[in-house]
Every structure is written in structure tokens, then in C-alpha cells.
Amino acid sequence: MMYRRSMSFALVATASLFLASSTHADGAHRPSLAIETDDGTVRAGDLVFDSWQAYFESDYFQENGSRCGTVINQNNPPAPHGGSASDCTYNFTNPSAAYDPAVGRLRIPVVVHVIRNSSGTQGNITEAMVASQIDVLNEDYLALPGTNGQNGTNAEIEFFLATEDPSGNPTNGITYSNNTTWFNDDGGYYNSLAWDTNRYLNFYTNTAGGFLGYVPDLPQGGIAGSSTDRVVCHYLSFGRNSPGFPYHLGRTATHEVGHYLGLYHTFDNGCGSNSCYTTNDRICDTPKQSSPNFGCSNDSSCGVSDDFRDYMDYTNDSCMTHFTSEQNKRMRCSMEHYRPNLHQDEPVVDGACCLSFGCLILSESVCNGNGGDFEGTGTACTPDPCPPPPDGACCLSFGCVVLSESVCDGNGGDFEGSGTACAPDPCPPLCPTVTGDISGDGSILGDDVGGYIRAKMGSPPLPGENQACADYGTGTISGDTAQFVTDLLN
Fold it and tell me: What is the DSSP string of 427-467?
């Protein structure tokens, strides 16, 4: 059953795609669109869904804009750092070269507060799943090759789980709490759990009020430093390969952190005017767009094709691929002027990282997070410091030889995998076993043509072997092939 009516449960809230008018101005609390009960059912207004998956697939979820619950207040408080903060206000973006990612990497310490129901039976997220979400953020914000984020643009913004709590104690950057009220995104949990929001990006995982995620406001609203400053993600859409298909690849966090760092939805504020830095999403290298895209298909809501693969649209996780160059600059501007104490001040020196597919220049934390071997700060990929991958069995036209994958492929072979061997032989036989009068004159009966030919000629093969095999496979011998076999047999 997808859902059923519940007359005893009043409608909690109806949010638009752009603004939930019932949200408090300070972003401290918003009424939930849906909550999870102790029996695992999900209540949304007068509807009851059997599971969050049924809720995510419902018309109610899409019609109420539940992909993201971020609300932008646009009250334009005074810029905290004077004129330079005017480069990325609510109403304007200046994509100055000062905010180019090439200026240097910005590293953000993260704490993840996992909130479960009071019995601890719902909402749990393992430490490994938390770590996978940090990996996804780095893949997307650094556009790491060989990952789902490789087709994006590198923002040079890196995330890492905090190693020291606000009191200076060692930590793994993850906290766990059991409280059903908090689990259903109520009760001011952030007042009790928040670490210094000037210095840490605070994630909270719970039911997110029935949304996949939200932040209370952009940093331009002055929220930075308050206990309400946070990124909230639904626990089923947090981390890589989470249960919340099709929102299961960690892109909810990528999207919400975009808001946390000052980005609008690509479709916010309508089509706007020709002044793209002051209308729509305040970005000029994102096409004008007035409504979100769902699934993995695009529209032309403002007369041009929507960029439905942008992280700030509403498409499925597998469909999202990138931020634009100017979105990166707006996020870095927001960090410099509205979150100046968030990123680490000390320089981070990258180095060579040996990954399964080769050498890349990465920070040590990103290298380790992707299963690489960090060769040390300041090391380079030229000359290549990484050991070559192990050789393996290579099936060539004349048999099996142990080679590297590149040499095998370069000679038209089939590589069987690193570390594989030629004994026992993993390759298909050069010639099929043929029984009967294989020579055509009764001189050899019931023999293996391929084995006989190889025994006669040795290695490497003589001209004609492959054709002999092919002809024997079809049971025909003629012309030059027949003469070749006759010469071998004699």
C-alpha cells in the first residue's frame, strides 16, 4: 500500500517550492511536512505512508517541494566585513578573480550529529556511512577524477571530519543522540548539540521534517555563529548508497551545503531579466530557469534548456554532475565574508596520491578517503612515484603470457586481472578439440588439432596457425590451410 488517509492527524504544513511562509524568520524551527512514528510509518498531513520510500515516490512529496526545504529570508542585514561582502549579497554576485579556486584550497571541519528515536531503533547511521558522505562531498566539490563528481568544476573546497572538539578533546567528528522529538526535527535539538557554528559545519541527520534536507537560510542572512546555523539531511539520504533511492548517492548533502555556502536553487526567483547577476539565482553561467526538474529529464522553463544536472536543481542523485565556475566563486566569496572563521587558516600542501587508476595531486585527507596511498606533502606525479599495478594473465592469439595490463591491451590481448596466472590456463583453447578424420586422409584420428599444431611448431606461432584453427572449427580444410596442416603432419 502506498498511503492511506488518517482523519485523526491534522495537516502539518504545505510548503511551496520556493518559500515556506510558516518558517520563523530566524530559521530556528519550521513545521514538519512529515514525521516518522515508532512503527515505521510516515505521517504527512492526513496521509499515512507505509515507509519513507513510499513517501519519496508520492505525488505529495513532489508537489510540496520536499526535495529541499531551504528557505531564504532575504532580509539583507548589514555586510559583516564592509564593502567586499557586497560581492555576494542576497541580491548580487560579482564573480571576481579574487574568488577563483586557483587562489587556494579552503578546508572545512565537519561534525555530524546523528539523531535517532528514543529507543535507538530508527535513524542510525554507521560511522562508515558518515565517512562515505564526506568522501562524496569532496568528490563533488573537488571534481575528483574517477568519481561521480569528475565532470564538475573544482571549487577547491575540501571537507573533513573534525579531529578536535570545541574543548580541544580528540574526536572522530560524529555524535549520537536518542530522542524521538529531535528525531522528528523538533524540540530545538541544535541548542543542545551544536558545536561552535563559526568554526564547524554542523550536520544533523533525522527525518528532516519530511524534506530530504534543508538549511535555515543562506549565510548572507547573518545566521553564521548562531546555534540554529546547520545543515539538516534525512537519515535515509545521507551517505553513499544509502537506502533512500533515488536520492541515495549523497547529493542531498552536496545540494544543501551549496545553500550553506550561499547558493540559490537554479530555479529560484523566476526567469529574471538580462541582469543575471542580480536576478534569478544571481549567477550568469547557469541558464535561466523558473521551475525545478525531477527525475533525470530537463525542461526549457525560460525559453532555454535548463541545466538539469546542476547540483542546485531537484533531479535524482545519479543525474547531478556539477557546480558551475561562477557558483564556485559565489560559494568562496560567501566563505570569505560571511563565514570567515569556518575554514582552516593554515596552508594545506598537497602531494602525490597513488590511486588504483594512477597518480593524482591531492591533500592527504582526500587521498586517504579515496583509498589511496599518500606519498607525502610536496611530492609530484612526475616522475611517477606509484608502483605499477601487478601483472596478470594475458590471453593473446597464440596463448597465455603474464604481462602488465597496458602491454596486454596494446597487443590486442584480453587481460584477466592483476595477479592472475597462466597456470592453470585461463584462456580459451586456441583450437577446438576436433574428433574424426581431421586430416582428410585418415592419418590422424581423434586428436586435438590445436595441441598437435603447437607441439609441431613450438612458439611463437607459424603463419597460418590461426586460420587453421578457424577452419578446423568449422570442419573445413581447403587451399593454403590444407597445405599448411599437411606440411606440419609430414
Answer: SPPSS----SBTTSSSSSBS--HHHHHHHHH-SSPPTTHHH
Q: Is 164 a catalytic residue?
A: no
Cell 602531494 found at: 351
Tell me if the pTM is above 0.70: no
DSSP state of 101: G
Helix (H, G, I), strand (E, B) or coil at 141: helix
For the stretch 268-326, pLDDT in tens is: 988 987 789 999 999 999 999 999 999 998 888 898 999 999 999 999 999 999 999 99
Cα 158 to Cα 155: distance, rounded to the nearest angstrom:
9
Active-site residue, from 36, 156, 256, 405: 256
What's the CATH number for 3-338? 3.40.390.10
Dig out the grid coordinates for 374 from the structure. 599518500
Take residue 343 and report the three cell numbers written for it.
575554514
* Chain segment 18-31, per-residue pLDDT in tens: 223 233 334 455 66
C-alpha cell at 251: 547529493
Nearest-5° angle of CA 417, CA 421, CA 422?
Answer: 120
C-alpha 296/C-alpha 438 separation (Å) is 58
Whether the CB-CB separation of 259 and 330 falls below 8 Å is answered with no
Return the C-alpha cell found at 18.
520556493
Evaluate whether 276 touches 324 at the Cβ level (below 8 Å): no
Q: Do the Cβ atoms of 164 and 177 come closer than 8 Å?
A: no
Domain ranges of the chain: 3-338, 389-428, 449-489
